[in-house]
Amino acid sequence: MSSKQVSFLENLKKVLPDESVVQDELVLSENSRDFGQLSEMPINPIAVVFPTEAQQVQQLMQLATEFGMPVISRGAGTGVSGGVHVLGEAVILNLSRMNRILDIRPDDEIAVVEPGVINHDLNVAVAKFGLMYAPDPASYKMSTLGGNVATNAGGLRCAKYGVTRESVLSLDVVLADGRLIRVGKNTFKGVAGYDLTALFTGSEGTLGVVVRAVLRLRYLPVDERDVSLLFPSLEEAVHGVQLIAKARIQPAILELIDHATIQVLDKQYSTNLSASGGAMLLARLDGYGAAREEEAIREVFADRNVVLSSAGSSEATQLIEMRRTSRGDTKDDAYRTGEDVAIPKSKMVEYVHRLQAAAKQERVDLRMISHVGDGNLHPTFSVEPDDVGDPLARLHRAVESSVRIALEMGGTITGEHGVGLIKKDWLPWEQSADVLQLQRSIKSLLDPLNILNPGKAI
Amino acid sequence: MSSKQVSFLENLKKVLPDESVVQDELVLSENSRDFGQLSEMPINPIAVVFPTEAQQVQQLMQLATEFGMPVISRGAGTGVSGGVHVLGEAVILNLSRMNRILDIRPDDEIAVVEPGVINHDLNVAVAKFGLMYAPDPASYKMSTLGGNVATNAGGLRCAKYGVTRESVLSLDVVLADGRLIRVGKNTFKGVAGYDLTALFTGSEGTLGVVVRAVLRLRYLPVDERDVSLLFPSLEEAVHGVQLIAKARIQPAILELIDHATIQVLDKQYSTNLSASGGAMLLARLDGYGAAREEEAIREVFADRNVVLSSAGSSEATQLIEMRRTSRGDTKDDAYRTGEDVAIPKSKMVEYVHRLQAAAKQERVDLRMISHVGDGNLHPTFSVEPDDVGDPLARLHRAVESSVRIALEMGGTITGEHGVGLIKKDWLPWEQSADVLQLQRSIKSLLDPLNILNPGKAI
């Protein structure tokens, strides 16, 4: 440890409670990375700070500014883009102990939370008022709301309810120099000044540290109907998505699962779905219109070659639960990469065909699930480690192709995972030099010493 | 005209077509202001520039940068906050001739538009595909989408569908120095880099000039049911809002109209609504759930002292149309001021009581309509010009009280109109010095010469 680091930690321990500054090797190692699979190995941070109140975050940032010490803030670390990986000197600011739900105001339909509250815990707490917090990333049982805000997390229900940004009304943010500001408003509408709330949302800890959030809640649906639809082919399943749209049905959840993923589900859950279909749609209809929307879906597909789950059965609901965890359970590793592009909805079939061609060319296995309701695809590429002909290079080329093709079709390199470290090289493929420069300027404005999660996101 | 101004215009006319640079007195005067009622009289701009393509906007901004010439961009000028008032040397950039719908992609559920397209025209164009553009400010038949983006416009339907920001996916923006950048994405989801799209949205022409927008469309509802509910008192009407929420009904439109406004409607439309109620709610239920939501509302109020419009009648629909134009028709003048606060939904009764007390104390007439579904209130204050005891000073104090009380209750000074000029003095009541400074720094970053709508919004 350098003398600067020693001195920084000495000063930190003077102002923070003993139990807040942890240097245990295991804790350092656990906090050195997220779920992202990076070729470069993370190193240990010099310490992990666990604040319990905003003032401690301010004290940390004041010292970090004084010492020029990089600070990486994080929650549960369930991100998959390496957004909190430690690659150089850094202290980790772990906000998981700031986990109080400060207020639930059912009549205002808002909740006020600290950043360490688990997404699912908020939903449990507000359900008794007939309310829900809508954004539901796959990690919702583990990930923190602060992390959700930092990545502008998506999930299954955003087809209908929007992503995290649409549920964030106000943020308390500790700036790089330790000042605490409050941006946004407590109301659903509000246009006073610039939209700084949206600027901080999704900025991956590079512009400030969120220490309190006012979140909009939605009505817990009075009714939910789940339908699964097995199609002979992926093409027909994608066409089915257009038919649902043309019937002006707005599902809360609309997932597409390809044949390879159906086979994985069959293996995991001892089902035999792959025998009856080439691709599957899973739709959840909710609210007062759920029953009529379910009827409408059944009418749309009545005379088509589609196997629908029977009305009232729990089959589709179970499938949605299986789907929710189908990528969460199988983490990426060096030989398996899950991607996250989004493309305009009409381009789905063409995209998949080109993706399949790219995978075939590189002899890489491909399976795919998609939040097809909003054009967000999660293809998973994998190779056998002991395969001939540099499998890792082929994997890498297939993944890059998937991103390039998405961009050629007017898509984006990341629908909901964030840029982190893993997608940083691709950002200039999507954004012009002027836009990149503008983002760097905004970063410099808010973090002139470049101590907030340096090197990430932009 | 100063020699700088002469030289600027000479240079401008060299690069732009003759018909694009207008100095006709009537046109100058028409373009000197919006619908906002400011005590200070606007002056004429030195010219009004009507570009027909983005490149002309770039050429204008290059020259403006060279000459340090302030540029105020505008659309139809239906704003009510003085956001495009001319108070000093300025050229007006009127984008109304850039009014092409560039593309409608029904399967992608997006439209690509130039900024001068009228909100309503886009809705007419996309209706044939079963789609709609959701944000519907009162001015939707006149106002431009560029103006809607500049003010992050709201409207009636945002109770369910969100404000303009939720429908803006991507923007082409000409920067102060004439560079053209594209921010955002063509997809519903996308988290690459900072949310610059949201930063430009609602920035009131102070950060750049929007020359193209990719807008998200929604499904045109398959069913719409309108219900009017007349309550004995305002208190009971507001309680009714909570009962609707507790039944987890999400109206597309939920408007509250007070007794004084009902009397105005009675006078305008020769109705006799005020005889049967003290306050009115107007609800529009839409989509597949419309019929069931209407049933649910009728159940909620079955045993209460509430007069509901009969099922299947057009009464409530007519009332919603009357309501849509009830403030648009009566523009503000020196003796009448319409306000635009938003407050947390639970505070509505308390707010109205305090508002009434403030109006009474200042002997000012008060009537009020409210987008009550999202807590956005539009009280209108008025005095008789020939009344004794400085009526304008009393009017001014009552208006200021309405804003202060909203802030005391955790509200905002502007729910949807924007800050413009008229609310600039109130912004420091809502936002801290640090937040104001941060916004000014962002402004300086994007507009170092302070030539983009200087003195507005922040």
UniProtKB/TrEMBL annotation, chains A, B:
Residues 41-220 form the FAD-binding PCMH-type domain. This is FAD-binding protein. InterPro entries: FAD-bd_oxidored_4_C (IPR004113), FAD-bd_PCMH (IPR016166), FAD-bd_PCMH-like_sf (IPR036318), FAD-bd_PCMH_sub2 (IPR016169), FAD-linked_Oxase-like_C (IPR016164), FAD-linked_OxidoTrans_Type4 (IPR051914), Oxid_FAD_bind_N (IPR006094), Vanillyl_alc_oxidase_C-sub2 (IPR016171). The lineage of its organism: Bacteria, Bacillati, Actinomycetota, Actinomycetes, Micrococcales. PANTHER family: GLYCOLATE OXIDASE SUBUNIT GLCD. Its cofactor is FAD. The keyword Flavoprotein applies. Keywords: FAD, Flavoprotein, Oxidoreductase. Gene3D superfamilies: 3.30.465.10, 3.30.70.2740, Vanillyl-alcohol Oxidase, Chain A, domain 4 (1.10.45.10). Pfam families: FAD-oxidase_C (PF02913), FAD_binding_4 (PF01565).
